[in-house]
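Entry 12.
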Amino acid sequence: MRSILFLTLLSPLLFVQAINGEEKRTFSETVNKFYNEVKPMKSKLDFMLQITKNINEIKKNFEVPVSDFINNEARDECLKTFLYDDIRKFYQENDDLFNKRQTEKVNILNTEFCNALESPNKYENFSESIDAKRVKDTDLKAMQTDFTTLQKKFNSYIDNVYKLKASNKADVGSINSLYNNILKTRNSKTKAIMIKRLETTTDRLVSEQTKLIGNIRNAISILLKYNQQRITWTEFLIKMTDSPKSD
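Predicted 3D structure (tokens):
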């Protein structure tokens, strides 16, 4: 009985019109309008509002332009003191790769992530009423289960992104300091220890940047799946499809 009442009250609010150029309503606007009209049912559609509770904080993190780069000038001065061309080449290639990917991959992926958060409710010309009897509690539970699966994956990727960004930032700071300190030191033993640390840190930096890029891509993929799933859920509620499951 509660499901029937819920969906009967919901039906007129999901008929989002975009006829003759009328602006389309976002998912948040649609769901919040429903909540304002039907206060006893508040929170029943929270999983359609956003993929995780702290999404605004996450977005702010992704909106910050990448600012961690290897100081090529300090590096080049330092490498002049290195005896072997292959060693100089190792640092030049890895540092240049890191800096290039910061601009051409990480920054661009951050923008793609933020764009994926801006998902409009793309419904047009809906005029049919909901047959509330066909929607069962099990259907609503299935929608929540699908959401929970997506949310867990998304949160895991975001946790990884935070950790890898912090690790990259720390390693960039260490590498830049090492280039300066290696150039200044006159103690050969101390210099050898610093060079070994530089090698280890450079290897880790490039490896973890690759992981960072992969995790941002995975987070974007989950966001796109979530956006599509929200469309599927709404199409099911307005009787465009027979199941709340995606094909």
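Annotation: The chain has one domain: 2-237. The chain is about 70% helix and 0% strand.
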